[in-house]
Design goal:
Elements lengths: L5 H8 L6 E3 L2 E7 L3 H18 L4 E5 L2 E6 L9 H16 L1
Antiparallel strand pairs: 1-2, 2-4, 3-4
Length: 95
């Protein structure tokens, strides 16, 4: 998978509100009502990550979930990251 240019990433992020480019990763913080809601979202996201064979760097503290995406094999951000971010947004919207 080919690494995206900074311009390509910035254009893609215009369609992904709240996602930021930071340290060669795209990142977003989600806040839920409580730990149970956050963990439930993580579980739904995990199943989709397995289906896409692409896994996030993430951190969960109580009601907050921080997700960071990049493609380790490409040493940067690829279309796989943009696609997974879109999928994550869809999962969160359905919650």
């Amino acid at each position: 998978m080919e690494k995206l240019s900074k311009n390509q990433i910035e254009q893609a992020l215009k369609k992904l509100p709240g996602w930021l480019l930071e340290d060669e990763m795209i990142k977003k913080t989600f806040t839920f009502g409580d730990f149970k809601e956050a963990f439930s979202a993580m579980t739904r996201i995990a199943f989709e990550c397995e289906a896409q064979n692409h896994h996030p760097n993430w951190e969960n503290v109580y009601d907050t979930l921080i997700i960071k995406l990049n493609t380790h094999d490409a040493n940067g951000i690829t279309q796989k990251d943009i696609d997974l971010a879109k999928t994550i947004e869809n999962i969160i919207e359905q919650s």
